[in-house]
Amino acid sequence: MMFARYHDFMFSYIYFRNTVSRLLKKYRNPSFEDIKGYVVCFCYQRTKSFSSFLQLVQKNDYVSAHCILRMLADNVSLFRLIYLEKNADWRMLRHYLYVLDGAEKLKELWISGFGDEDEEEKAHSEEMATLCQERIDKLESLINASPLKEADNEAFNMIVKNKNWKFKDFCSARRNQYSWKEMHQMIEDKDANDFDFFNFYSQFAHGLSMSNAYYNVDSKSYSMAVDDAIFLMGRFDEYIKEYFADDKEYIMKGLEEPDVKERLRTHADLESNVMKYLKE
Length: 280
Fold this sequence. Notes:
The chain has 13 helices and no strands. The protein has 280 residues and is mostly helical.
C-alpha cells in the first residue's frame, strides 16, 4: 500500500540507516563495557524497528504500527536522557543502571521457568541465569567504582538501590524519577501543537478501547503516524550525531557512496539540504 509521504519516509530511513551503518563499521563491540559499541548496537536494533513500522503500514496493520511508534518514542527518549547527559559521571551511572535493570529482570525470567521445564531446558535456563549473574556482578563492580559514591553516598545508595537510571537529580529524595511522559516531552517539537503523543500511542500499546475504533482504515489514515515516524527518525539521527560528534564527517561521507546516493535520489526532495550536499 502506497501511503502519503512514502517518499519522505524512505528518504529519512535511508539517511538514518546510513548514520547507523557507518558507525556499525567502526564500533563493532556490543558489550556494555564498550559504551560506544553498545550504543551503536542499540541504534541498529531501532533501524529494524523503523523498517517493521513501514511493513506494518504497507500491510494496513494500523494498531501494530502505532504500538511500534510508542516503543520507538520510548527508545528515542531514553537515548536522549542517558547518552546525551552532560555530566559524564551521571551518564555512566545511568548507562550501567539501565543495563543492570534489564539484566536483573532477565535473570528473574530465566529462574521463574525452572520448575516447569524438562531437564535439558532447565539446564539451559540455569546456564542463562548464571550468565546474567556474571553480567550483574560486573555491572555492580563498575557502579561501585563510580566517583559519585564518594561525592554523596546517601544519594548514590538510594539511586543504585532502585536501579533508578531515570533520576532527575543526584539526591536521596524518594520522588526523583522522570516519568515516560516527561521523557517524551523532552524530545517533542516545541513548535508543534499540544497533541498528547504519549497518551494517544499508549492507547494502542496497552490495548485500550480507543484502539478498537480503527477497524476500517485506508492510506490517508496513516498520515499522522508516518509524520511522527519521520519526526522520530530525524530526532534520533540528530541525537546520534550529537553523541558521535567526532564521527560526523565520517558519517556524512557515507552519503556519497553511489548506491546510497542513488537510493536517496529516488525518494528525494531535490531542494533538500542533503541533496544540495550531494551535488557539491
